[in-house]
Amino acid sequence: MHDFHLLAISPIDGRYYQNTTILQDIFSEYGFLKYRIKIEIHWLQQLSLIPEITQLSKFDAITINSLNDIWKNFSLCDAKFIKEIEKSTNHDIKSIEYFLKKKISENLSNHSSIISFIHFSCTSDDINNLAYATMIKKTLHKVIIPLWEEIILVIKNFSYKFRKLSILSRTHGQPATPSTLGKEMINFFYRLKRQLKQLKNMEILGKINGTTGNYNAHMIAYPNVQWDVISKNFVNSLGLTWNPCTTQIEPHDYISELFSCIIRFNTILVDLNRDIWGYISLNYFIQKTTYDEVGSSIMPHKINPIDFENSEGNLGLSNAIMNHMIHKLPISRWQRDLSDSTVLRNIGTAIGYSIISYNSLLKGLKKITVHSDNLQKDLQNKWQLLAEPIQTVMRKFGIVDSYEELKQLTRNKKVTMHHIHHYIEKLNIPTLEKEKLKKITPSNYIGDAMNIVKKFF
Asked: Residue 292's pLDDT is what?
């Protein structure tokens, strides 16, 4: 750990930096500058392809490569230079424009015909929204989706492995109809899989249409150009969905939709973390540890479920930030206000907390083993659970007050197999039905739990 990490104010860049270094080239100030420079250069190249812009010749291969090298080779020194310019301009996009003019002047012999078309007819958000959109798109496909898929796969495999292992269910915290451990985990698999499918189908929108979204400056300069077609093709070329109808800014609705999906996924993981925490507390799960690990600074025996607690806490932080963005970002006074700008710069922070939580959860899942004996012991002492199937069969044969009878037999009483079998023997039902009921135990009364799991394999 370097001094920088020890001095960082945010734990994202400090304590948990190893989990979030993958985001540095995307959501850092350096990354944001690089993505905006890339958009500016691509827009410049797009302009050179428009026949009506006779003042700007179509770029040859040498010019295209030289321009691309500016963003491909963008360095920390370049970023620092832009920040020095910004001290004078007090405007981040204008500083990027001045930086590009200097770079192009130094590297291209035909720069005189190019420089005046840098940032041509653009408002700041034409560049910013496309930069954020491409940053988000890369993060989804390179970071978030792979982590989601890994979590889902680990849960799926866990479900199959323990599809036959009976477990005492708890509704309202009280003993309830048994299930299998695999079935209870496949519930989470199914819920998470739905959110992954929705995430993959999310549209990431972008716009490039000028100061209030009407191509005003574009049409004054070149009225015969179909600027809406140029805009759509350019946005699509970035792998984004074109938003044809905006004010000065892209309204961020898609970010709100995207974060809503991530929040749902995260909330399901909070539920999973709490269930596993509870199973560890019941000694259903055992955590693998290494010899040197310490669970408590004073109690040597303890092995705390810290991975699941860490995951839950960071999921809460991530959801809180995203929830603010969901409500804030789609709102902008009239055609534009700047209150979204500082909020957008925290996208990496919101995603960073999620990534920390995903890694903690995966670490925890890979450390737990199942104490099957404890699961079975808990079930063996719960013969009162069979009141449900017995009174259901009694109803089948028209026995009145079957529920009330079983309530009297089982509620707040110590019930054993002898009590259950003795009660069954006295029932006025066919002998075959009695024999079937006697074969039921708290461990095998699991319904179709095993097959429900199998259907996903």
From this structure: 63
Residue 251: predicted pLDDT: 97
* Other CB atoms within 10 Å distance of the CB of residue 19: 19
Task: State the chain's mean pLDDT as an integer.
Answer: 95
CATH number, domain 383-441: 1.10.40.30
**Active site positions, annotated:** 172, 296
Q: Does domain 126-371 have CATH number 1.20.200.10?
A: yes
* CB of 34 closer than 8 Å to CB of 375: no
CATH 1.10.275.10 domain range(s) in the chain: 3-120
| Run of H or E including 180 | strand 174-180
Q: What is the 3-state secondary structure (H, E, C) of 369-426?
A: EECHHHHHHHHHCCHHHHHHHHHHHHHHCCCCCHHHHHHHHHCCCCCCHHHHHHHHHH
| Angstrom distance (rounded) from CA 377 to CA 167 | 10
- pLDDT tens-place string over residues 394-446: 999 999 999 999 999 999 989 999 999 999 999 999 999 999 999 999 999 99
